[in-house]
From TrEMBL:
It comes from the Bacteria. Keywords: DNA-binding, Phosphoprotein, Transcription, Transcription regulation. The keyword Transcription applies. Residues 149-214 form the HTH luxR-type domain. This is Response regulator transcription factor. It comes from Dactylosporangium darangshiense. InterPro entries: CheY-like_superfamily, NreC/VraR/RcsB-like_REC, Sig_transdc_resp-reg_C-effctor, Sig_transdc_resp-reg_receiver, Tscrpt_reg_LuxR_C, WalR-like.
Amino acid sequence: MIRVLVCDDQALVRTGFVTILDAQPGIEVAGEASDGRAAVDLARRIRPDVVVMDIRMPVLDGIEATRLLAGPGVPDPVKTLVVTTFNLDEYVYRALRAGASGFLLKDATPAQLIAGVRTVAAGEALLAPEVTRRLIGRYAARVRPAAAPPGAAPQLAPRELEVLRLIATGQSNAEIAATLVISAETVKTYVSRILTKLDLRDRVQAVVYAYRNGLADPN
């Protein structure tokens, strides 16, 4: 059973998410919150498998709430799925850096919301390729060095570096396998090695790492 905490300050949106998720087999809404501070407190108390987190909220916004639940230095992070709209691009990038495992647009379909929760609960990152290129590429370009630092990922073998660059474009394991003409299982092994060697939690952090260290082209 995947236990979910839904956090959104709009009662109608929150109720909609709760209704959709609670109706699914294997998913249970364990709690609701209307602001980021309440979400952090409740998540720490009930330890949900996934927090569905809005960004713009009173008291404490979703980015800071995500950082407190899943950010750097958090010993036992809670998987967080951020929801937003296209006109909040920079907030999304900041949320991913804060530790979010992925994001959805607020106009996502119920099926996409359900799939997103299951994906994040399984430990995978939820990144649509076109959104990855548009958002992360644009904002990572602002913070990465003008030129790639020498030996940005010296611990990675050439093939692992190649896989990391493809991850940064938003490709799934199956797509990377097709691009490199290898099996999806082999790609999965490479991804695991990359995360371990670079001390990264998930694919989201790998994407941010690639752009910030000049290993991927934001254009």
